[in-house]
Amino acid sequence: MKFFRLCIILFTLHAAALAGDAWIPLHSENGGILLVPQNEGLSASSTQNCILTVQLPTEQSAVILGKSINNPLVIDDLAPAIRLKTDSAGIAVGVQVVLPKTIHPVTKRPITYIVPGSKYSGSKNWETLSFRDKNGMPNLRKESDRIAALLQAELKAPFGTAFDMRGQYVRQIILFAERLPQQNGLKKIEIESVHIAGYAAAADHAEDQSEFDPINYAGFKIQATAKPVYPGSNADSNTEWVSPLQTQTTEPLQADPHGKPIPAANRRIVYDNNQPKQYALTNGQTSSPTALMRIKMNDSVLMIDDIPVGIRAVEYQGEPLDFLRKLEFNAVWLKEPPGPGLRLDAQKAGIWLICPPPGNTELESARKFDPNATRENSVSALDSTYDNILIWNLGSECSYARHLADSQRAQVLQNADRIKRRPMLCTARSGVYDYSRTVDVLMLQREPLFSSLDLLDLYKWQKEYQTLARPDTAFWTTIQTQPPPKLAEQWTMFEGNPQFICAVSYEQIKMQIYSALASGVHGVLFTSYTPLTNNDPETDFRRTALELANWELQLAEEWFASGRALPALAQSNQPAVQSAVVQAGRSRLLVPMLQERHNQSVVGSAAAGNVRYIVSGIPETYNAYHLVPGRLLPMETRRVAGGMQIELEEASINSLIFFSEDDAVYAQIGQRAKVMGSRTAYLACRLAELQLSMTEQVLAVLKRAKEMKVIPVHPKDHLPLMAMPEQESMIRTTKEALEFAKDLAGRNPPDYARSYLQAERVTRGLRFTGRTLWQEATRHDLNACMTPVSVSFATLPLYLTAYQRTNGAKLSVNRLPGGNMESRTIEQSGWEPMSHKVEGVFVAKKDISPAAQHSGQTGLQLVVAPSNPSDKPKQLETVPLWIAAPPMQVRRGEMLCVHGWVRIPKALESTADGFMVFDSLGGEALALRFLETNNEWKEFAFYRNVPADGSYYVFFALAGIGEVHLDDVQVCAVQFEAKPPDSGVAVPPAVPAPAPFYRRLNPLQYLPPMPNWGN
Fold it and tell me: Which residues does 960 contact at the CB level (< 8 Å), separation at least 6?
């Protein structure tokens, strides 16, 4: 009887009291009562907070409150949670579990008991109380079975009662509130939401809900008031709790250069129905409560717990996930479904995974889940180890032909993932509109760097491609951070030195990000081909650049996560400087879009002085600020005809300007900028150091070539390929300016904003020098991508080496059958036309026509015509017409030259790619592109090294609406003489070294003469 006096407490409530979902008092001690609650009808999906006030007149007063949660079965994935905040400690969460098949010997009702969860720390901030272990895994089922085993041992001795655990369910979630010493008599509890992750409905047990009689109440009370915090608590004494998706880190990244800790907190304002909502980002490690999160798409915006989130993902190359999290990525892109170990690592690191769905077997098993089956026979939906999956990737080669199968697969996946209902993503090569009805996010995927696709054309393509999908479809895009693998392979065959191949500059990465922001994209994937943990100069630079890019994206999080790009660019008084306008709530952001061409190869100084903008549509009450890590810089504005005018003494890639009238927005963004100032200033200075080192190495090689008088004279203008003026003073000035940037960050007090801006100014001289030399060296090239080593300042030493040895080579016979485009030969030569279904295109054809001849009798005529000439699409979704030349056999070590003539009578429309010429060794990334030739014949040529024996193909693709003529196409091997003829220029003696046979065939000592260079 002693057991019952201590542990069995019976509470009787009317059944009507539990109808609905209000919080109801279940038990009180020492006078504790629940006062009239506000918003007591709050449901789990409600967006309005519920506020409860509990009166606790004396110490040890206590109240238990209960809320019905519709009887979910206690399964492995079940994880109820409640998000709340209050003014003091003494709050704990629990659930009342019912065993419907086990009757208590005394009460004659099903046995019930309480399973405790976590408790509130007393931080006065938002916390989530849940049922999870230290690894963030749901543990309610495990704890329920453990408690049941203990209670069964006590009941079995006197009564012989054996517990039947089948069909156990949760009757209600409960809150325990107790007055602790030195606390006042009132507790105000604000409840934001109740989450029931892993819900599976039990049978209707309404008749059992009239009683609250947990046999372990006394034990629960002792456990709820004990000092240790239960697993699952995520209290933070300084900042509001948020999900691990946000920009938190598990620990401070490192000390800054001056020995001060780098805080990772980050606060921001977001807007909900035009109402500002404060949100905080913390560096407190949580127990990965991703199962508590609501993931959904709100039109084109990804929402996590009703907060818009911009995705900063990186391609996974085997790096530790906590390492990637410290580089400020919030998601990782996987090419294969993750195993259990990687999913657990993601939960520990607090980082999201974007990946293909599980295999068909697992999906089919999850889809067939029966909530009414017995425990032994039931099959769960995708279990909680998948909680860190953010979005499912259906593939990167989706097209019209695959759409039906992909849509069926998406339906199976949706059924299997019915608890979380994660969004789905794909990269659609065609059928964009159809896929926009199947998936939630479409990926824009291009590799513009070192190609013939200009970054300005990339921006135009990103904006216009989105018009092919349903309105408000979400789009993400890739950000290229390394040369394409095929280009890197060509550099290697040109005996490229890895020290010089840190070719992707930070400015190129930043310009791609700005293009994404300006086109309304809300997620970016930083492409990666090698691990970020490698120990080499290129990886060091890329690692530093990507971390800084992630910090800067967080600085502009409001506009990146949910901004809407306005249609027109803001013009300035200088045509080379424009800005896109992105709107988020009651704020605008100016994103600089520099209009200089060929930035995809080499970025110049990218700065201009005395720039004046007139921005239309800005309310008169708005103020302007320069958005800079460290602190915000107020700017003067004035109203003029046409809008608001702002003036910049200098405009650069760091000229992000935002407008707002809300002082709270300014305060929150200013606080965020202040927090990240130290780290961003350090990273900016480090990038400047690395760029200076790389530039010095390249200039040293070119300077040595000048001193040895081996820089050749160009046959067209009889001037040196590169004049190579004195650079020592520029290098010296750069080093002095860099020391000044570091000094600004080290002052007391430090000026991180000026240090950050100064670090970018430091590199302008380096960029100007690099672009000038690159333009000079390639000034007479037929095409921008004619050789793989002429596409970057970093590869100029290779280009010079190749160029200076061209005299001793000649082209062999043409290997391409039918390249003269005469009807007698092309029809028998194996040329293969390929047409694709494209919306808006009616005709796509090829013809042998006298109108297309450059020489001989005929040429190849390619035509793509619109379905409706008066309503042409802004952008074709894929290439409607391809021509594949017959295969040619090539040998390892050969160098090939592809040469021909093209004419475009009228500029091609609805395309950023125009007419493309590319091959199987370079792919589309190294394609030549032609949008117009002014109805004149234009000569083209490009060169490739052959890495292995095999078949070689050349392709011609008309990607827009219009007409193209092609003729006299040749593919020739380059023949080298044993020794180059004496040109009268002193050539340094070669250092003898053994070389394999294929290197002697293609010794890089000689490059074939470029067609018509001497004319």
Answer: 864, 876, 908, 909, 910, 911, 913, 914, 915, 931
Q: pLDDT tens digits, residue range 671-726?
A: 889 999 999 999 999 999 999 999 999 999 899 989 988 888 888 888 888 889 89
Burial of 471 from C-beta contacts in 10 A (0-12 / 13-18 / 19+): exposed
Phi and psi based region of residue 598 (left: phi greater than 0; alpha: psi -120 to 50; beta: remaining)? left
Please, which residues bridge with residue 897 across strands? 943, 972
**Contact indicator for 184, 75 with CB cutoff of 8 Å:** no
What is the spatial distance between Cα 938 and Cα 957, in angstroms, rounded to a whole number? 16
| φ, ψ (nearest 5 deg) of residue 2 | -60, -40
How far is 140 from 960, CA to CA, in rounded Å?
59
Q: Is the pTM of this model over 0.85?
A: no
Query: Is there a cis peptide before residue 749, judged by omega within 30 degrees of 0?
Result: yes
Buried b (16+ CB within 10 A) or exposed e, 943-957: bbbbbeeeebebbbb
Residues 150 and 19 sit within 8 Å (Cβ to Cβ): no
DSSP 312: E
CA separation for the pair 801, 642 (Å, rounded): 54
Give buried/exposed letters for 104-120 (b at 16+ CB in 10 A, else e): beeeeebbbbbbbbbbb
Q: Which two tokens stand for residue 771?
A: 């672009």
Per residue in 288-322, pLDDT tens? 444 456 888 988 999 988 889 999 999 999 999 99
Indicate the pairing of strand 352-355 with strand 389-393.
parallel
- The whole-angstrom distance between residue 146's C-alpha and the CA centroid of its chain comes to 42
Both tokens assigned to 748: 């007391």
Exposure letters 67-84 (e unless 16+ CB within 10 A, then b): bbbebbbbbebbbbbbbb
Which DSSP letter does residue 283 get? -
CB 550 within 8 A of CB 512: no
- Residue 165 to residues 154, 203, 479, 981, Cα–Cα distance (Å): 16, 15, 53, 92
Measure the CA–CA gap between 372 and 166, rounded to whole angstroms: 11
The 3-state DSSP class for residue 30 equals coil
- Could you tell me which of 529, 448, 545, 544 has the C-alpha nearest to residue 482? 529
